[in-house]
Design goal:
Blueprint: H1 3-31, H2 61-65, H3 79-102, H4 109-133, H5 138-156, H6 160-181, H7 188-201, H8 205-229, H9 241-262
């Protein structure tokens, strides 16, 4: 590996970490109903409300240099900020490496990579918001659905009929559950997320659904055991959006390999 590749990889990782930091801000400020961008909306410490200087906003490095604390009041910054930056940087680097080295895209490398970055960014927002607040907002899910369909129509010229069928399958799959349980099993946001999965994956949505439920079971089964067998007080409501996003992400990049193994 030459020095140029190292520089490129680090740049992509750092760019992803920077975007991850911004996505975290979007989630937090959306919940507080604050403006995301604006001269009067600079980053601030949630404890002392002091403005954070630009040199303390360098992703990953600022957290390490300040030892995870506010420079002014020494408030302990949530470790999630640091982890989100690392995770997003890693995801962005993985997407680039996958598209460049594994699928060996040439003419469409930039377009498809940007498309995947867009999906990843919205997915991270939805993942975090549902994980923290138990809700999938229309402003994020519907916007992503529109972007996915338009992007595929304009750049990939896919069969719109097949895309709409897969989108309907994803929506209907959760819609039936929502109707039967009267909203007790899943939330309305899962219906829209199912539609997004169909639009992105096509008929591979079935792989993503299987993976999502399998991953969820790894978490749910121990929770059920603790609640009903050991009689512990545990949170019974579990946001399903993060599991759907994980299943979708795995299917995008490993779906074909999974099909090869099965068939």
């Amino acid at each position: 590996m030459d020095i140029l590749n190292i520089i490129i990889f680090f740049t992509i990782f750092f760019l992803g970490a920077s975007i991850g930091s911004f996505l975290n801000v979007i989630v937090l400020r959306t919940k507080k109903d604050e403006k995301i961008i604006g001269s009067k909306n600079r980053s601030y410490c949630p404890s002392c409300h002091g403005n954070i200087r630009f040199f303390d906003l360098v992703p990953i490095f600022s957290f390490l240099f300040l030892k995870g604390r506010c420079r002014h009041c020494r408030y302990k910054i949530p470790i999630s900020y640091f982890l989100i930056e690392i995770a997003t940087g890693t995801i962005f680097l993985f997407i680039f490496l996958y598209n460049y080295y594994i699928t060996k895209l040439d003419n469409n490398l930039v377009i498809i990579t940007l498309f995947h970055y867009t999906i990843a960014s919205f997915a991270i927002i939805i993942f975090l918001y549902d994980l923290w607040y138990g809700e999938i907002l229309d402003k994020f899910s519907i916007t992503l659905l529109i972007i996915v369909i338009l992007f595929e129509l304009i750049f990939f010229r896919i069969n719109i009929f097949e895309t709409l069928i897969a989108t309907f399958i994803g929506f209907a799959f959760f819609g039936i559950q929502f109707f039967i349980s009267k909203g007790k099993w899943i939330g309305g946001g899962d219906l829209r997320l199912g539609a997004i999965m169909g639009a992105i994956l096509g008929y591979n949505i079935f792989i993503a659904l299987f993976l999502s439920y399998f991953i969820a079971s790894i978490y749910v089964i121990p929770t059920i055991y603790r609640k009903y067998i050991k009689k512990e007080k545990v949170k019974s409501e579990i946001p399903f959006g993060p599991f759907l996003i994980l299943g979708t992400f795995i299917t995008i990049y490993l779906g074909e390999k999974i099909l090869e193994i099965l068939y």
